[in-house]
Amino acid sequence: MTSAILSSHRRTITPTTHRLSAPADPSTPRLARQFVTGALEATSHASLIDNARICVSDAVTNVVQHARVAELSIELTAHADRVVIAVRDADPARPPQHRTARHDDERGRGLALVQALCHAVGMTLTWDGLTVTGKSFWFELRDSG
User: Fold this and answer.
1) What residues pair up with 16 in beta bridges, in sequence order?
2) Statement: residue 60 has pLDDT above 70
3) Distance of CA 92 to the CA centre of its chain
4) 106 vs 54, residue with greater confidence
5) Per-state percent for the chain, helix, strand, coil, to nearest 5
6) Which of 107, 14, 128 is nearest to 58 (CA)?
7) CB hemisphere CA count around 96 (13 angstroms)
8) Rounded to whole angstroms, how far apart are CA atoms 43 and 56?
9) Short-list 62, 22, 53, 61, CA closest to 141
């Protein structure tokens, strides 16, 4: 890893990537929050921890509840001024769905919340040659300073 000192904070110049594979079960959102917390602390992006924990928790929960998969992966790529987090699974047929929750709904606000907290949000398909093998829901968080 190449690093340099910028404005008295250690910042990564070359992007650094951290990966986690985990089962798609109800305990995984907690594990995902712990993973991004550690990775953001290690890459000097502690200011992004709160929003990253909310967003990764929602994305992983969506996979656990809606995708028909046994496992998922999380990839965090830290740049000097931003972080991109991707949650991947092997169910390309079930992309995240934006919905408008009624005031009394207990669910259905997650994607809107992620969009509000992030600089950018998207979904891409993952491929093996010419075959679609899954999807990747990603979001970008930026340091304000």
Assistant:
1) 78
2) yes
3) 17
4) 54
5) 30, 35, 35
6) 107
7) 28
8) 17
9) 53
Q: How many CB atoms neighbour CB 80 within 10 A?
A: 16
Structure-token pair, residue 95:
């992309």
Q: What pLDDT is recorded for position 106?
A: 59
C-alpha angle with apex 130: 128 to 132, nearest 5 degrees? Answer: 60
Helix (H) or strand (E) holding 124: strand 120-128
Strand pairing partners for 15? none
Q: Which residue has the higher pLDDT, 41 or 107?
A: 41
pTM of the entire predicted model: 0.83
Report which residue type is found at 116.
A
Would you say residue 7 has pLDDT above 50?
A: no
In this structure, which amino acid lies at residue 94? Answer: R
At 63 the pLDDT is 95
- The single-letter code of the amino acid at 32 is A
Whether pLDDT at 98 is above 80? no
Could you tell me how many residues make up the chain? 145
Residue 103 clears pLDDT 90, i.e. is over it: no
Please state, as a whole number, how many other Cβ atoms lie within 10 Å of the Cβ of residue 112.
14
Q: Are 11 and 44 in contact (CB under 8 A)?
A: yes
